Amino acid sequence: MTLKNKLAVVTGAASGIGRATAGALAAAGAKVIVADIAAEAGEKAAAELRAAGHQAAYLGVDMTDDASIAAFADALKATHGAADILVNAAGWGRTAPFWEGTPDFWSKVIALNFVGPMSLTKALLPAMMERSQGKIVNVSSDAGRVGSLGETVYAGAKGGLIAFTKSLAREVSRYKINVNCVCPGPTDTPLMAAVPDKVKDALVKAIPLRRLGQPQEVADAIVFFCSPNSDYVTGQVLSVSGGLTMVG
Question: What is the pTM of this model?
Fold first, then answer.
């Protein structure tokens, strides 16, 4: 499998699953745009990829801000050209009872996990349609498939991203654009590091494979959907969760 001469945009690529995905796509030959709000970490991630002999650059973007997304799309076109691959990997949440949430918190969760990916997709989609090619992978969550205790709004946003994936796949199939979704289960990322050990231990006991996932394992699934190996696959949702979620 090779992604040589492909331009891949990965949001949330400064850390966690996004970082692992950027590395995997670069290793497959793609030129990777590390897109993240964290400038220092994003620049470092891109520099490390270049030091390893890959093509990579950092472009800042705030996925909760329409103006930032528009500016990112303009800068991408002017500096690097049209994207062949878009991976919406940026995401964020916090565990708390639904009734303790505030409108500001809900707005941030929905913007980052649902509206932001839609906005960036809309910005980059026309160039894909013009060339009749493209791969879009949305990183949702198993919370969006089956719900998650203490993550009600997050689960709702991620569920919306799943439905968006399936519907968009139908709309753009005529342009030979594939749109798929990867749903990580509990994964060993910086976000998971903030979870109390008691909760992590309970999660591990509930996972049939008895361990947390690694970012690289999720990245492997994402790269499959970005590659020619998935040319006949669109509108699909793949859980990478050690068997925690088995949806028929």
Answer: 0.93
Active site residues: 154
- Domains defined for the chain, CATH in brackets: 7-240 (3.40.50.720)
3-state secondary structure the chain: CCCCCCEEEEECCCCHHHHHHHHHHHHCCCEEEEEECCHHHHHHHHHHHHHCCCCEEEEECCCCCHHHHHHHHHHHHHHCCCCCEEEECCCCCCCCCHHHCCHHHHHHHHHHHHHHHHHHHHHHHHHHHHHCCEEEEEECCCHHHHCCCCCHHHHHHHHHHHHHHHHHHHHHHHHCEEEEEEEECCECCHHHHCCCHHHHHHHHHHCCCCCCECHHHHHHHHHHHHCHHHCCCCCCEEEECCCCCCCC
Predicted confidence (pLDDT) per residue in 126-170, tens digit = 999 999 999 999 999 999 999 888 889 999 999 999 999 999 999
For residue range 75-124, list pLDDT tens digits in order.
999 999 999 999 999 999 888 899 999 999 999 999 999 999 999 999 99
